Amino acid sequence: xxxxxxxxxxxxxxxxxxxxxxxxxxxxxxxxxxxxxxxxxxxxxxxxxxxxxxxxxxxxxxxxxxxxxxxxxxxxxxxxxxxxxxxxxxxxxxxxxxxxxxxxxxxxxxxxxxxxxxxxxxxxxxxxxxxxxxxxxxxxxxxxxxxxxxxxxxxxxxxxxxxxxxxxxxxxxxxxxxxxxxxxxxxxxxxxxxxxxxxxxxxxxxxxxxxxxxxxxxxxxxxxxxxxxxxxxxxxxxxxxxxxxxxxxxxxxxxxxxxxxxxxxxxxxxxxx
Length: 273
Ligand SMILES: [Fe+2]
Ligand SMILES: [Fe+2]
What we know:
By secondary structure, the protein is an alpha/beta fold. The protein is built from seven helices and eleven strands. The protein is globular and about 50 Å long.
């Protein structure tokens, strides 16, 4: 069996150490899992999209794990589509690649093809958005009958595939529709995401959607009123064997429950022009 652990939203920085106390208990828990591969589904950094030092710091921490790590970027790592102050662009993508490797990637296991996607490109109209989609088509076409599992930062939707624009929380409807067509047409087994800092596991049209919890902090009910899932800190464990797989959200009780609401003014101060 091939053991994979998904971690997400660690939000680490050498200068903003608000969530740093959760790194050591996370690494202790990870070591006990003995995974063959760790997949980080983004927001590796607190807000490192313009900060080389934050990337160097996070890369050193990830490398200190005694296991291969594949990461995909979050909004705080490479910026967001059409963001007024921190848009995703070539410079920010280059910074990610220089420190943490490719921002979209494929990893084959026996019977499976795992695809990591840079969800921050969806709806950006950057040249890289087209390149990623053409690449994705090729990865699917060449999957040679393997089962497909996707990993990305922003979920494709929150409640329903046909819902309107959920703004900050999910992929916008226009790029979402194309991606969901691919999911349906190619019977993608699961789509695993981060970003929401919530744990949830549900199925729509035969595909499983797994919200990987943060291992850094949770978000208070004021910001996520009525949202499904639970404000739990943890990770997701996967076991792949032939064409079968298991996925289980794991609460990690050794992590300290930190709330972004208590420190948001320090961690994400309003932009000063
Ligand atoms: Fe996050
Ligand atoms: Fe995020």
